[in-house]
Amino acid sequence: MDALSILRQTQDPITGDGSTFSEVKADSDCTEGIGPQVQLPEDILHRIHALMPMRDAAQAACMSHAFLCSWRYYPNLILSADSLGIKEYGSKYDEITRDFISRVDHIMQNHSGMGVKEFKLQSYPCSTIDPIIVDRWIQVAITPGIKKFELSLFELGDIKYSFPCSFLSGVRGSSIKSLKLAGCSLRSVAKTGFMSSLTNLDFQSVDITGDELFYFLSNSCALEKISLWNCDNIICLKIPCQLQKLNMLSVLDCQTLEMIDSNAPNLSTFSYSGHQIHISLGHASQVRKIRFHCDYSSNAFYYAITKLPLIASNLQTLFLSTSDEIINIPTAFGKFLQLKNLEIMFYAAKFSQEFDFCSLISILDASPTLETFIFRIGVPTIRHDSIIEDPLGNSSHPRRLSDCFHDNLKNVMITGFCSAKSMIELTIHIMQKTKSLECLTLDTTRGHDRRFASIDRCLRLNEEALVEAGKAQTAIQRYIEGRVPAAVNLKVIEPCSKCL
């Protein structure tokens, strides 16, 4: 049988039909007179095939018997509506689901399971896939030698797919380096065995208890990164001391969580988002970076400023954010003795009209080694205490803010800069008490440096915010520009035409 006959009888490894071969015939006819084709060694051909994106690899399998054989060992199975060429719009969900299941089924049936290095299955927008079918796909995918496994299931109801932990046992699970599960539950974790190669763990909306997770982590001693998001069955998160290589821990929006107790000795980066809980990072001498977003409480910043110096005494980079209404920043009792980079962001739709921007000086005074300070107002605030209406010069008793100098501070940025009197006072104070200051950026937009780079457009400002931006520009001209030291580079960012 000649090559053309083989191609005509071969099905598309993704769709299961031969629709692509009407295009192949013309190319084959054109090459009949060329003579014998060069035969590549099998290992080189497999290597070339493995470097192709999955759809290109499938097309090659349609056009070449050698590549068709290689397809049975194709290493990177990335299965999603997009990668399978399924159009999500204009079709009913049950039609999309049937098409998705049919294509994935055909791929997995045509694959030997051998040679898989990466398996990634994203079921969105399909939400009614029979668990038996998913089990069948996973059983083929998780074979000895697999390095990366990701299963993201789109679930509309409360009942989650129960991931078969036994598939991770023995030699099959021992080679996995990266494991991501989303939209499923984990039960009978003891069946997973020892995952000696696992370095990256990512659980999103996974139904697992704290005890089950602790057991899982205790058998994954090579872990370097743990990320937990929306895992609402964890009440107490314990990180065992066996995780000597763990350097990154991220815990985001786990609603029932009450305590984090980490004994990982080399943790360097910690991220947390949620309500106030008890946090212990052990000795935490290696923790250098913390991202802390605290909601659901009016004293979120009090908790952060009073507790974090104790939780991580050698902290160098700190990002604080909240979407709660802030009244004032409390006085810091501890010192951030090693802190070099500080970023504070308020997402609140509006500040309390009593909020005093000068209360930020408290945390500056508590950070004697600070080099970079960024203060962001995520949503521009409209204040009634604009310095334009109540000039600073009319005050017969100027406030005494602080006698502390910020000897290492070099870069200061304020985004969402407004004309509030206390904002102007804060800026003047920083200039007067910071002899080392090199660059001062006052951004009257929502953050010019964080705009949508792909479309070169800033975050949109409403009409009130544009009016306030104009007042802020006037306030900068009247009260700040004349006070800027000669050695300081002042940058004033105004709304551009794309912000409108």
UniProtKB/TrEMBL annotation:
Annotated Polar residues bias: 7-22
Pfam family, one: LRR_At1g61320_AtMIF1
Ranges where the record places region Disordered: 1-22
InterPro entries in the record: At1g61320/At1g61330-like, LRR_At1g61320_AtMIF1, LRR_dom_sf
Domain At1g61320/AtMIF1 LRR, chain residue ranges per copy: 107-497
Protein name (Swiss-Prot/TrEMBL): At1g61320/AtMIF1 LRR domain-containing protein
Taxonomic source organism: Urochloa decumbens
